[in-house]
Amino acid sequence: MKTTVALGGGVGAAKLLRGLAKIISPPNLLIIGNTGDDFELHGLHISPDLDIVMYTLAGIVDESRGWGIKNDTYNALGMLSKLGFEVWFKLGDKDLATHLIRTKLIKEGITLSEVTARLCKMCGVKAPLTPMTNQQVRTKIVSNKQTIDFQEYFVKNQTRNRVTNVVYEGAGKAEPAPSIIDAITEAKRIIICPSNPILSIGPIFAIPRIRQAIQETKAEVVAISPIIAGKALKGPADKILASMGYEPSVQGVVKYYTNLIDRMIIDKADEAQEDKIQNLGPNVTITNTVMKTLEDSIRLAQVAIKPG
Amino acid sequence: MKTTVALGGGVGAAKLLRGLAKIISPPNLLIIGNTGDDFELHGLHISPDLDIVMYTLAGIVDESRGWGIKNDTYNALGMLSKLGFEVWFKLGDKDLATHLIRTKLIKEGITLSEVTARLCKMCGVKAPLTPMTNQQVRTKIVSNKQTIDFQEYFVKNQTRNRVTNVVYEGAGKAEPAPSIIDAITEAKRIIICPSNPILSIGPIFAIPRIRQAIQETKAEVVAISPIIAGKALKGPADKILASMGYEPSVQGVVKYYTNLIDRMIIDKADEAQEDKIQNLGPNVTITNTVMKTLEDSIRLAQVAIKPG
User: Fold this and answer.
1) What is the ipTM of this complex?
2) FRET pair for A21, CA 20 to 30 Å: which of A97, B65, B120, B270?
3) So where are chain B's domains?
4) The domain at A4-38+50-57+126-305 falls in which architecture?
């Protein structure tokens, strides 16, 4: 039985998960990764959020960037550029191995959840990581009248577009990957990692059966705010919250998670917000949420698993 | 109209072709490349013989090996190895770009001949290069009772297997790629490059309409022997000829090309064989056939295009 289910995507999630994986043994843990960022590039199926988590847990992530594999080179990319292709998405040469394997297995008809399990095993990652679904969900950014693919917005345009809406294409009809609903139902705790609520967690909650299971579970659902003192530690979470009509603050995050969370973990910098958050419903835990070292990650994971 | 059609595959062919491409202008030339060596690896469609020719004509080949791209790295391969995959086929990181593009375009339903034309254009190669067919032909090595994929025999096993037969799977039903038959019919000369007769030229001749067109054309068909003084300059041509019942000599090559060639270019080292070859049918031109420099390649190409 899974005691702990964690939902996340991106660098903030990976940082918490490397701590969580140290204190919850693999059979008791399930990590649900966002695949709304997945896309096809040069014929490869790329799952950026799953890879960030996998590389981090495998201890091979490029820590300075939080994504990709350390000491990687970019010679395939350089050649693609010489041949006339756009290379704004930084595919490392080592990283390509993962995408090649994933693409090949998917082409052979193997589900993304099985592919992810195999890749994790190959990388020596014991903590079970699953995509949120085996079906295609694609996060799209609406900027005024234009709809942009997520990676184009996020990587190519460096989040410069003014976001007027975020759409999770395919999510409404997507089924959760195997084991997700059982795990959410049986778990003692659900942890929403300090990820971008709209871009990394939003796609997961956009799958109706996952959202419903989270709302119905008896587990404590605890979220860690990715916003500290009105700013995202990394990425555009603050900007996107504001664009979508949420205050770029811990309160904005709590409002986005309305009816979904029991407890909110906020940074000491936001101590003054405690009452306002409690008025919105959830309990509040105040701690240091910035994770610089593995010890920081373990300590924050311990706060997350301690019943509020 | 094509005045010159060249058939080949592998390093020997590429060396001649870099000379030929200097003296025959692109609209007058067609290079037909062997695709019997093509295979799928890590989900990629790899066309080793087309790539050797393309990289050589583009001036980016690793000249010390004759294949691959110069100054390439092997980090994707190293990662695949760490993940538990066999990596006996040396895929360079830059080289991967070519395979990614080819695989993607083929998956989109574009023919290999069109893909090859696009890749050549991207690489700046002006000489028209076409695969022998857009259908799948796979050279298989029969070793006693075992049938082995070509690359397994050639690269993995380093040609150690005793060859009892060579089979060109799919060739009997394969159609020539567009423009090949017209070019052979209208050309002034057909040049069979100094490639392995059985492994590189054999698959091309195994396509019935190509073989027939070569037999019927009014063009002079001239072959350059890949065997010098009973030895292959590179690769297992001598061993394979012997295994298949041909003498590993210029005479063996001529016998393999029975009813196909009008003229045979042999090395000065085989001068003494002139009469014996003429008795078998073809005219003979004797010259230096070893190509070390571009000048050697141009000179040999000039001998090849000079009517015998």
Assistant:
1) 0.92
2) A97
3) 4-37+126-305
4) 3-Layer(aba) Sandwich (3.40)
